[in-house]
Amino acid sequence: MSIELDSLLEKIKAPDQAAMGAARAYQATLAKPPESLGRLEALSIQLAGITGKIHNRMERTHLLVFAADNGVVEEGVSSAPQSVTLQQTINLTRAKTGASTLCRHFGVGITVCDVGVNAEIHDKAVLNRKIAYGTQNICTGPAMTREQTLQAILTGAEIARTVDADVIGVGEMGIGNTTTSSAVLAVLLGADVEAVTGRGGGITEESFRKKKAVIRTAIEVNRPDRDDVVGVLSKVGGFDLAAMCGAFLGAAAARRPAVIDGLISAAAALCAFRLCPEVRSFLVPSHASFEIGYRLAMEAMDLRPLFDAILKYIPAPKGDREAPLQCLIFDSQYDSYRGAIVYMRVVNGVVTPGMDIKMMSTGAVYKVVEVGCQQSDRARRTKIQKRIAHVEVEKPPLPLLFARENGFAAEVAAQMNMGK
Question: What pLDDT score was predicted for residue 34?
Fold first, then answer.
């Protein structure tokens, strides 16, 4: 299988510099101030380099979700039971999760692929590419064999290469995979475990300490070589991570842009980048994850996410359990005289007027100036502004994506309400 991987990597070529130059020249002819469209202009040039065309229409969009279980959950690193992987894998095919509901709403295709769920799945809507019934516990030995890792990479690559789409998104479902992702990042980046490990789905302080200890133990037991990406994945990774790594490689080989999701997706993209640096030209980071390892992964690939929608409390709450504030920013306004204001939907946590909120990816501090309610508490809309801002412009909210249920972050059906 290593020969097949080598063949795949050889298919990944550099972006079309002539097309990128033509795209820049075309933008210079448009009746607008230079660079007035900001990063959209850079994105259009990137797409030209990928497709070889100046004008691109991303009409066929598709989300790939790779589902697998991780043996490390035996160590108590997750707030959710392993059975949630199976439940959410099936829910993803029925528009009962935030991701799949948004796919249905916006006409995005979705493929849910089982590469290692620890259960039999008889639902025909789930693509069966099961390699094994979950990985082994990385605290006691390798997650999987090298052959299984290569199989997962090639599986993801084939799906991404052959899917009927102009652009793909790459995601996952697997309880315990923030632990494996943090382990992979710690090794590949040569970083301390503390620097790349977050709380994942909202675990307790005790579980958080255990999670970091588990990652350290896994690295000590397996001693992965940071220069051997396949080896790192096989020792401390997971089937989902390996398949996602392959998906990014497959998309690049097919000259198709691939959108990075959160921490796990970013870790998989970094693996693909380390296997073939040319992959970077085909990657489009979506949003800035609040997981601390995400930022390091982006820096390692010299990438910057398009959206910053995750915020968190500055002060730690009382007690030993942290309940992170999560928000979806849906609009912002700027006035050269009065300053900037941001509108957001609170999807987890509680805010009050006067509260300071820190944006995790940039460090910017905002102050809540007004809290307004819609039809229900879960559809709470909040207006926040920078300390210098005084603009007040109301805009309709985007869909509610996530809510806190049963002690862990569960995806819920999106709700669209375009009225004030």
Answer: 82
Three-class secondary structure of residue 175 per DSSP = coil
Per the CB < 8 A criterion, the answer to whether 343 and 361 are in contact is: no
The amino acid that residue 406 corresponds to is: N
3-state SS assignment for residue 367: strand
E runs forming strands in 47-199: 61-68, 109-116, 126-128, 167-173
Report the distance separating Cα 351 and Cα 222, nearest Å. 44
Amino acid at 280: R
Helix axes 146-162, 239-253, angle to 10 degrees: 40
Q: Rounded to 5, what percent of the chain is helix, strand, coil?
A: 40, 20, 40
Residues 245, 269: Cα–Cα separation, whole Å: 6
Residue 73 near residue 164 (C-beta atoms within 8 A) = no
Residue tagged 């990385």 (tokens): 138
Q: pLDDT confidence of 341, banded at 50, 70, 90?
A: low
Amino acid occupying residue 327: C
As a whole number of angstroms, the distance between CA 245 and CA 135 comes to: 17
Which of the pair, 125 or 363, is modelled with greater confidence?
A: 125
Q: Does the pLDDT of residue 349 top 80, yes or no?
A: no
The DSSP code for 329 is E
Give SS3 for 405: strand
Predicted TM-score (pTM) of this structure: 0.76
Place of tokens 């935030």: 98
